[in-house]
């Protein structure tokens, strides 16, 4: 169709394509409003009459992000159709500055489709961060776990079918479905809040399963607003935050001569000195990690050839809905 | 402790008391900020110098609510500790204008405590509203359902314990727990948004289980800000909304003489006339229901003697956590 | 340009047209995302598998609005470019669920363009509602007032030019500009929150000046999502709210026989009876007003021929910026 | 009064005290809900059963802030009564995640009290940041400016009095009052969003006048939640953000040996090398500024002896309201 609205060919290319995530989930970009130029236009309304307008789009967008002038990026909006396990949906929904319409288990029959972790992501509790995975797969255990999951899901699915077949209210029939059951929703969010979402959910500390969604969404965003995305990669995703004490430590280790930076020969800070600057033991470790960890090298590139038509998933879901002989 | 902050004896009386909801859940009022007088004070800052200040608190609060001047009621805040099945939590969390801290299944072991509907609430799918219950209990089926729930929960609980015992990451171990598993959170919300929550969740169309929570919360709110609550009962909970067409119909049926209202003798509107006023068949039925349904007679009174100490629930939950022999 | 996004010819027609408001202000629809069909699509994701999909778009949208299922209408987004006096902007900005980028008086020079009320809107303080206008123009006084406004604005404008010419920081130079000075912004909001905005600002109790903006915006919205708009007209704008007491009064005056409604002959309620039903004197008056006031008959139709190109306003504003000889 | 709610002696001490800001403004802490212990308690609900609870409040709060776990700090709420010039109010209101009740110029007569910048803050436009002040006072010009401000305000005040005396609607009478006119409001915000407010408004790039308010509010917050405040000082206010390129530069200049950090002797990065790491000229300057600027040394300590009773300001405002002989 023809429009006078701002459009973006790279985004148009993937519009309505369904990208698989995990074993049965997906994300599709359904609609978008605006692009980098609209962020610029919104910022320019601030820089009105009587100002020079020399900087170009990229420079302006990087300036805005660097200085946390985030309101112009609220002017771009993205809408997605997503399908994910309920335990992922529960983390996702915490991002309040967005709009959601979820599949209703009160109205509708729920497809009996469940998420099954693959062996490589089946890992032990991390001993260090206390909330995530260790990084090492529990390969030997996986086959057993799969068998147990399948048994449990058969029981839960049978229970759901039995209740629905006996006309029990759907809002009750569903209560023993597992958190691994897939649900789906429409989700709309602006660029500013989406960057915040990615900051939390594309991060290495996020649970692997929601990270898988965040990565695909990042690839879509990269097509909608590539300059804003690049700025986010450089200043947020690949950057870091320093405390007052860490900054003071660096000032002792690095010398500034005019516009040259030099390592200050002989300067040395051990745990004792860092502690005197106010860093706790744990903060010292975190500081060292910042200075040694390899920078993230994700490019979040999306391959349109991996996408499938909407019907593929619709058919799979519809086929998994309990067959009941109710006379409605 | 002593404070110069506004306090409210009726609210202080129940502060920290844990009121049971459903079979294992609870709601406790943990803290509150302000009362009716603070709504008034905030409104008065608008009615500043050069205005008469004759109306008293009750009149002002009723005026504000009637005319949807809702910002002053944002000045009162309530904080709750709540424990509810996950499927209830999923409806609850949709109220975005609030703050939540939920028990984390990534950090912590989840107590194996599940919600079991009682026979009287075990009902068929409603044929009319298509998303709720019929109102009639499926008594004959209940015992069977309970047995099946217990079997399924045993399977799910065993699976969780087995995975945790094998040191599988908690964020993965939990994924097959049923939606009936209890979770808990701290929840903070202001009076304005809490009234919106009650409007949706204390309503007859809400799922029974979340309504049970809304009713207890309403009872707490009644103690924190009794005049605001009374106004909500009169103007929202017990009131209704009329469309343009319904209002036109009433103007034909009711005559206004000065300040007297009279039934207009001989005035009669059937489906045809109502349809001509723009009402669909469904709207006609809804209009008639508004004029015939008995007004709600809940008083939302809370009986402090039904409350239990926090420790009661803490002990129950703690006892239901899987015993694992991990060396952490 | 070509797009696969949902478009809407009636909205495309006015995209980028600048509609004048007041003496120097404007509103332009800059972009939009979605239409009625997208509200429907979002709602349908709730009504998933195992439900009948018989109702068509209009019926569904009216059902959603009637029952306050507002989340699907969050899926439509509108973006405007607006120019209004600062005192209007101060009322407007109170609608927090939206995004704004305002012209910055810290960066930029402010055009010396001021709002001058016309004689017909120059009215006395209302004696009844205590915050608005009486409805009657103070014609005799207007010419005097205009002369005084012009003198005061000359003083304020001279002061601004003098400060700016002496290189005083712009953030300081502006502080004595009057509240009638025009400012401008980009404004983005979703359909649900825009209806709320219109409910408050297109209402007869709103200040005339912001109502003038609300009316133009309503006309734009009517083109973006006509079915949603029609439903809003019928259920919100032209409807009303009844309290518990008012509803009880109507039940005494109107008889329901099957699906027929009849005026109950001989039923009569005076102030005393209404007071017994809990209505205050003021509420009685408000109730009577609801039953007697003529329904609003605005159609909010927008005439594209009244619009002007963006350049028209840009030129006017640019020409009103102080000419300073600063060497920057 | 006696309460079972959590209280905080340092906060109680200043509750209801009015601290002067600028020449006629003020901020008073009116109420608060919770303190550091409540942040901890909210976080602990996440760290439930089966976790060790060894870390104490301070460590936990610093951990939360360092890792941007901000939801627990939403559990603390503060309420203020503030009086500020309208141009300050216009910046302030942009912080949407808060509640506001402002003095209404539609209902009430506006006190004719205006903000007059002192000589030391009367500065030229900054040549470098393009939106703020240069840092240097335009002392010679100040007396002239003051005289001009006074003349303009007399004109504006007379106009307001004349219009009000002729019974012109207050919503119209006010439109030529200058942006320097004082207004007032109640303002409620949670700790998380207040830290964001302070991050923007206590920053050196904020306009001096709003910064003056932010500093007093910071002093109040320090008394309500001292450990959270200390963490904010260390990690946010005194810290900084590094981009991917800046981080890479530091990795070349600093060597990590075990837990020791050393300046890397001979390492030297000039503009060319930094440009190769992706930094623009402007970013190079910003990077050097981060490594050379003295850390902020504000302690935001509040002196209760500078406060005045509420009546002091109420009297001043009331006295500045136009005396009109209307018979209402």
| Strand arrangement across the biggest beta sheet of chain A | 1-2-3-7-4
Instruction: Identify the quaternary structure here.
Output: homotetramer
Overall geometry of chain A comes to: flat
Order of helices and strands of chain A: HEEHHEHEEEHHEHHHEHEEEHHH
Helix-residue proportion of chain A: 40-55%
End-to-end C-alpha gap of chain A = 39 Å
Radius of gyration of chain A: 24 Å
Total DSSP E strands of chain A: 11
Q: What about the largest sheet of chain A? A: 5 strands, antiparallel
Overall mean pLDDT score of chain A?
93
Task: Chart the SSEs and their pairings.
4 copies of one chain form a homotetramer.
Chain A (H helix, E strand, L loop, with lengths): L8 H6 L3 E4 L3 E9 L2 H11 L10 H10 L10 E9 H7 L6 E4 L20 E3 L7 E5 L1 H27 L4 H4 L8 E9 H11 L6 H17 L1 H12 L2 E3 L1 H10 E4 L2 E4 L4 E2 L1 H6 L4 H12 L17 H10 L9
Antiparallel strand pairs in A: 1-2, 2-3, 3-7, 4-7, 5-6, 9-10
Helix pairs in contact in A: 2-3, 3-9, 7-8, 8-9
Tell me about this structure.
Chain A has 328 residues and is α+β, with helices and mostly antiparallel strands. Helices cover 44% and strands 17% of the residues of chain A. Chain A has 13 helices and eleven strands. Chain A has helices at residues 9-14, 36-46, 57-66, 86-92, 139-165, 170-173, 191-201, 208-224, 226-237, 244-253, 271-276, 281-292, 310-319; strands spanning 18-21, 25-33, 77-85, 99-102, 123-125, 133-137, 182-190, 240-242, 254-257, 260-263, 268-269. Chain A has a five-stranded antiparallel beta sheet. Chain A has a two-stranded antiparallel sheet with strand order 5-6. In chain A, helix 2 (36-46) packs across helix 3 and helix 7 (191-201) packs antiparallel against helix 8. The longest helix of chain A is centred in the middle third of the chain and has 27 residues, at 139-165. Chains in contact: A-B, A-C, A-D, B-C, B-D, C-D. Chains A and D meet through helix 3, helix 9, strand 8, helix 10 and strand 9 of A and helix 3, helix 9, strand 8, helix 10 and strand 9 of D.
